[in-house]
């Protein structure tokens, strides 16, 4: 079981904070990919999860499908990149998460 890193950024509503995982540095044949040619990563570790949005009646919160510590696949252009305390984070809406990766 993995434990999530404590992050000083607390998401609100249906938002989550993700730390993007590094993209592959080399190709299958062993060629090194320069930084300018790398694609934006679409996989990351969930560091913090918001409380969820309110239901239609406004009486209770609807929890999110992801938990802290999950590795998720997210939309290529989703979320907002944030730098805080020398670290880079991605704040995503729960609808930008495409899948949870089970390893």
UniProtKB/TrEMBL annotation:
Signal peptide: none annotated. Pfam families: Cpn10. It comes from the Bacteria. Gene3D superfamilies: GroES chaperonin. CDD domains: cpn10 (cd00320). The keyword Cytoplasm applies. Transmembrane segments: none annotated. The keyword Chloroplast does not apply. One of its GO terms (cellular component) is cytoplasm. Residues 38-62 are annotated as: Disordered. InterPro entries: Chaperonin_GroES (IPR020818), Chaperonin_GroES_sf (IPR037124), Chaprnonin_Cpn10_CS (IPR018369), GroES-like_sf (IPR011032). Keywords: Chaperone, Cytoplasm. Its main location: cytoplasm. GO terms for molecular function: ATP binding; metal ion binding; protein folding chaperone; protein-folding chaperone binding; unfolded protein binding. It is found in: Cytoplasm. Heptamer of 7 subunits arranged in a ring. Interacts with the chaperonin GroEL. Belongs to the GroES chaperonin family. PANTHER family: 10 KDA HEAT SHOCK PROTEIN (PTHR10772), CO-CHAPERONIN GROES (PTHR10772:SF58). Together with the chaperonin GroEL, plays an essential role in assisting protein folding. The GroEL-GroES system forms a nano-cage that allows encapsulation of the non-native substrate proteins and provides a physical environment optimized to promote and accelerate protein folding. GroES binds to the apical surface of the GroEL ring, thereby capping the opening of the GroEL channel. This is Co-chaperonin GroES.
